[in-house]
Structures are given as structure tokens and as C-alpha cells.
Design goal:
heterotrimer; A: Ferritin; 10 helices; about 0% strand; globular; B: Ferritin
């Protein structure tokens, strides 16, 4: 697999799995209005994944659905951060903000890419991600405004920090870490990044359920 | 205005706004009706949620997530109407979770397969649209106005559901069987959905023109619109008596009204489990809800 | 929580119409939430969000006396127009 496809799948897998996780809040978020807004964010992530898969699929001679749903767990290239199942709001918001911040750094680099298709898609995605970043920032501000919220946010961010560091590579990671540290009023430990390449057990579980209907009639139209 | 004058006013098509005087009975019935509608949208999310996770293509995943998101959005619109009438949504949630308030029968049943996903989106939402169109002319104007947005959004749900069903009935034998089997289970609750055939002049919701159609009228409309669509796919419905009469009236086996009563009072196969799930979700996120509701620092 | 009234504009040039309301901790949350509740299908090109207590309600317009003199429905010129045309000899054959 060439570098371009590898990169496309990395980002697509991140967006797909995170979007899948985020969509688990549909119907059970802390407030109805937030539920609607967060569900849009989840759908946008999956929409981005689809667009990225389509670029990769064109090169590989397959379909976006096949890339999204038919690969073996070890062939997914997502960062462990997005695989974690955390149906708990503080961790969800912490992950949302950490990922959006990292993704923001990644998209900036991609928008400057010499590859016009990649740069164009990155720009399109970033125009939607702007609102995701705004939404995440709303929650960070609200959480930091009081003791209880701040405590919960700190606990969640510290727990997820090693995973968050694993979203970007050595080149982009320092910019990301700097942005996070500049925003947060509490210290973050030095941590070993949990990088791509190995998956948590949670991914296999997720993919098993995610593909259960599809595998019941392989090759069928749905 | 006296209560009698108000009654004549609404029966002649008069509309009521939130600040207008209304008889205590009208207000009480209205709140209960809209609250049950809101509760139903909120509980309606749960049968479909698990299938979002298992959607077999990206497009189906997005469509199903969007559909469920709409149900949440409808709940928001409806609880707002109730809130503006004086009952806060937290109080509505308390009553829902304690079993004091009800939600529609169809959301008390399990979803067993992807076939259910298609059948629900197509036929349950279709049954709901029939009722909802009758609410477009509700005497209570704020309710009538939000019904426009709700009906507009529901129309995509039915199309999505029908598309899912069509893909299955033109697929493998196994896929077709998913739909047929689901239909067999959902037909009973669908026939009960519009409520027992109380004559509309004895139905307070119609008398006050909160809804503009009686239960049996709604059911007939549903049958007229959708049974032909089911039959044209070669699918069977589990009622040998179901047929359209010469006069255009559909005949059918009398639904089990006892079952309906039992289910909506919380004794359906999934009633307690779904309420438990809601209770747990609410408890786990209560701190975040509180954070949103807190006064600005 | 403050309640924000939402007005939406469907297409450029159309009037802003009341669409509903959003309780929110502040204007920023109200915006984030209103965007999705009233715009996720591209059904609005613009929204106005207004705190409910900023809306001044005006009702009770007295309608006691005949105001037709200042409205179009207070005028019926057909008969006089016909007579004037007849006098000027300009009445068309089909004139009633």
C-alpha cells in the first residue's frame, strides 16, 4: 500500500471509529439540544470518513463500504484513542476536544499538501471541523468554570493523554501538545504516546458488532 | 370567555396561543397529550439505537443516525411546548421514569433484526405521520406549528424505511425473510397504534380539537395508504380478515385492546428495561446536566 | 438557563420567521444548538437568536370604529368609473 493510501486510511479510520463511538450518545446525551448537536458531529465524522475512503477506494479498485466494513481488525489504521469505549460524558468531551485539537493540526498540514485532491478534501473537512472545535471549546470552557467540572475534566484528560499523544506522528505531535498545554490550567504528565499499529481489544469487539448484519449476507445489497 | 364559548371557539377552528386564557380541563388534557407525544419520541430512540451500531453500509448508518437524531429533535420541540405551558422537562422525565406518564405502545417492543429497522422506519413512522397530519390543525397553535417541522422530517424516515425494506425484499432469501418475520411481529402493535375506536365525539382530544381526527379515522387512513404497499411486495400480513370493503372501509380482526392497555401502562416486553436504561443514562450524566443548568458564574 | 427564541430565514430575500425556542446556558451554546436543530438539513441560510425576555409582546389592538377609509377594501370605483367613461365617450363595448 502506498503512502497516500496509508494516510487516507489512517484518517478515515480515525473518523469512522470516532464517529461510530460518538453516535452512541444519540438519544442519551445530558441534554436534548446537546444530543441533537452531538449527533450531527458524529454524522459529520462518518461523512468525512466516507469521503476519505472514496479517495482510497478509487486507487485500490474497491468501494468505500468495503474499506469501512470488510477489513480484518488488524488492518484498520486508527489511533487507539478513538477505539476506547467510554460512555461517560467527561471522557467523551475530553476525547472530543483532544481529538479535534490534534485533527486541527493534521488538517493544517494536509491543506498545504502538494496533492490537490488531498488538499481540497482537507479544506472541505476543515470547514465543518471548525464547528466541531467551537463546540468542544464551549464544553471545555463550561467545565473549567467550576470545581466539579474542572475536576472531572482533569481526570479524564490525564487518563486519555497518552492515547491523545498517539494520534499524530513525531513531526506534528509537539505542536499538538503545545496547544493542549496552552489551553489547560492544570499540568499534564510526560507520557509515552500510545501510537497506531497496535489495537485495543475494544476495536475487535466494536468491529464484530458493527459488521454483524453485513456479514450475515456477504456481498448482498442492503 | 366562558368554557362553553371557548369550546365553540375551538370547534369552529379557533386557535389558542400560549398566553391565552384556557379552561383548566383543556390545559390539563393538552399538557398530558403533548407530554405523552414527547415521551414517545424520546423512548422511540431506544429500539433503533442498537441498530445504528450494526448498520450494514455507511449510507444506512448515516440515515439511521439522522432518523434517530430527528426523534430527539422532535422530543425537544414537544417538551418545549410543555415547558411553555408550565411543566419543566425534568418533571416530565421524572414522571416518565417513575411510570406515572406514558409513551406509545410501539416503543415497548423489542427489535430483533435488521428487518425490524426497515419495518419500523417504514410502517411505524407512517402510522405516526397519519396521526401527526391530524395535529397540523390542532387548536393549540404552538403545537400545530411544530407539527409542520415534525411532519416534514418524518417524510424522509418513511422513505428511508421503505428503501431498506425494498433492498431486503430484492436481496437474498434470508434478507427477504428478515422483513416477513418482522412484519409478523409488528402488525399487532401497528393495528393498536391509533388507539381503540372510541367515537370521536366521545374523545376529549377531538372534542377540544387538540387533534382533528378520531382514532378509527386515523387507522383507516393508515390501512388505506400502506396495506397495498405491503401486499404489492408479495409480503403477507398475519390477519386473514384484513380486506378492503366495497365501501372503501377496511375490515380487520379486532385488535387486543387489553394488550394495548397493559403495554402502555408499562407491562410491555421491553418497558421496564428501556426505562431502566433511561434512568441509568440520566443518573450517569446528571452532573453534566446540572452543569448546563447552573447559573453563570 | 435562558430561553432563546429562534427566527429562521429559509432562503435569501425571505422574511425571518419564528421557528421555536432553545433553552441554553448562554448565547454561545444557544448558537451551537440552534445551528443543528434548525439548520442541519440546509433548511436555513440564517438564524436570529433572541433572548426571550428581549422580545416585547404587543397585543390587544382596538378595532372599534370603521377604518375602511384607510384600506384598499374601503374603495369600490367600478360604478363611478363606468359613468365617467360613458360621459367621456370612451366606454368599451364590453364595459359593464
Amino acid at each position: 500500500m502506498n503512502e497516500r493510501v496509508r494516510l487516507l486510511l489512517e484518517i478515515a479510520d480515525d473518523e469512522l471509529i470516532l464517529g461510530w463511538r460518538d453516535s452512541e450518545w444519540t438519544g442519551i446525551a445530558p441534554y436534548l439540544e446537546e444530543d441533537v448537536a452531538f449527533s450531527s458531529i458524529a454524522q459529520n465524522e462518518i461523512g468525512h470518513a466516507r469521503a476519505l475512503y472514496e479517495l482510497a477506494a478509487a486507487e485500490l479498485g474497491t468501494t468505500a463500504d468495503a474499506l469501512a466494513l470488510d477489513r480484518a481488525p488488524e488492518d484498520y489504521r486508527c489511533a487507539p484513542l478513538v477505539e476506547l469505549r467510554r460512555l461517560e460524558w467527561a471522557r467523551t468531551i475530553a476525547r472530543h476536544w483532544l481529538y479535534e485539537t490534534a485533527d486541527g493540526v493534521r488538517l493544517e498540514a494536509l491543506k498545504a499538501s502538494a496533492d490537490p485532491e488531498l488538499a481540497g478534501l482537507a479544506a472541505k473537512i476543515d470547514r465543518e471541523e471548525l464547528y466541531h472545535r467551537m463546540h468542544a471549546e464551549l464544553w471545555i470552557e463550561r467545565l473549567l468554570a467550576g470545581d466539579e467540572g474542572r475536576g472531572k475534566l482533569e481526570e479524564a484528560i490525564v487518563e486519555l493523554w497518552p492515547y491523545a499523544l498517539g494520534v499524530l506522528d513525531d513531526e506534528l505531535r509537539p505542536v499538538f501538545a503545545e496547544r493542549v498545554r496552552a489551553r489547560l490550567p492544570f499540568p499534564l504528565p510526560d507520557a509515552e504516546p500510545v501510537t497506531r499499529g497496535r489495537h485495543t481489544a475494544e476495536l475487535a469487539e466494536l468491529l464484530e458488532e458493527m459488521t454483524s448484519v453485513r456479514r450475515s449476507a456477504p456481498g448482498a445489497e442492503w | 370567555m366562558s368554557e362553553q364559548e371557548f369550546l365553540e371557539y375551538v370547534q369552529e377552528g379557533g386557535q389558542v396561543e400560549v398566553g391565552d386564557w384556557m379552561p383548566d380541563e383543556y390545559r390539563a388534557r393538552l399538557v398530558k397529550f403533548v407530554e405523552m407525544h414527547a415521551n414517545s419520541e424520546l423512548m422511540g430512540v431506544l429500539p433503533e439505537r442498537e441498530w445504528i451500531l450494526r448498520a450494514p453500509t455507511l449510507q444506512r448508518k448515516l440515515a439511521l443516525t439522522a432518523k434517530v437524531q430527528d426523534e430527539v429533535g422532535h422530543a425537544q420541540l414537544l417538551y418545549r411546548v410543555v415547558e411553555d405551558l408550565g411543566k419543566p422537562r425534568e418533571a416530565c422525565l421524572d414522571d416518565l421514569l417513575s411510570g406515572k406518564a406514558k409513551f406509545h405502545n410501539v416503543f415497548h417492543y423489542p427489535t430483533a433484526s435488521w428487518g425490524d429497522v426497515g419495518v419500523i422506519a417504514w410502517l411505524v413512522d407512517a402510522a405516526a405521520i397519519v396521526s401527526q397530519k391530524a395535529l397540523l390543525k390542532s387548536s393549540y397553535a404552538p403545537y400545530a406549528r411544530i407539527m409542520k417541522k415534525i411532519c416534514w422530517e418524518e417524510s424522509f424516515h418513511v422513505l428511508h424505511g421503505r428503501d431498506v425494506v425494498l433492498a431486503l425484499v430484492t436481496g437474498t432469501a434470508g434478507q427477504r425473510e428478515l422483513v416477513q418475520e418482522a412484519l409478523g411481529r409488528w402488525w399487532g402493535p401497528l393495528m393498536q397504534f391509533h388507539g381503540n375506536p372510541i367515537p370521536r365525539d366521545e374523545d376529549p382530544m377531538y372534542v377540544w380539537r387538540i387533534k382533528s381526527q378520531g382514532n378509527e379515522e386515523a387507522r383507516q387512513q393508515f390501512l388505506e395508504g400502506y396495506v397495498p404497499q405491503v401486499w404489492e411486495l408479495g409480503l403477507e400480513l398475519p390477519d386473514p380478515k384484513l380486506r378492503r370493503g366495497e365501501d372503501g372501509v377496511w375490515a380487520y380482526t379486532e385488535p387486543d385492546w387489553e394488550e394495548l392497555r397493559s403495554v402502555v401502562t408499562g407491562h410491555g416486553p421491553m418497558s421496564e428495561q428501556r426505562l431502566d436504561f433511561r434512568r441509568l443514562a440520566r443518573e450517569n450524566s446528571a452532573w453534566a446536566t446540572r452543569l448546563l443548568l447552573a447559573e453563570a458564574a | 438557563m435562558k430561553v432563546f427564541e429562534v427566527f429562521r430565514q429559509e432562503r435569501k430575500g425571505q422574511p425571518f420567521q419564528h421557528a421555536g425556542s432553545i433553552p441554553a446556558p448562554d448565547a454561545a451554546f444557544a448558537e451551537a444548538w440552534a445551528r443543528e436543530q434548525y439548520g442541519r438539513r440546509g433548511e436555513s441560510v440564517a438564524l436570529w437568536l433572541v433572548p426571550r425576555d428581549a422580545v416585547q409582546v404587543v397585543e390587544d389592538f382596538p378595532d372599534e370604529f370603521d377604518l375602511k377609509y384607510r384600506r384598499v377594501d374601503g374603495y369600490s370605483i367600478k360604478a363611478r368609473l363606468k359613468e365617467a367613461r360613458e360621459r367621456a365617450g370612451t366606454a368599451a363595448p364590453g364595459d359593464r
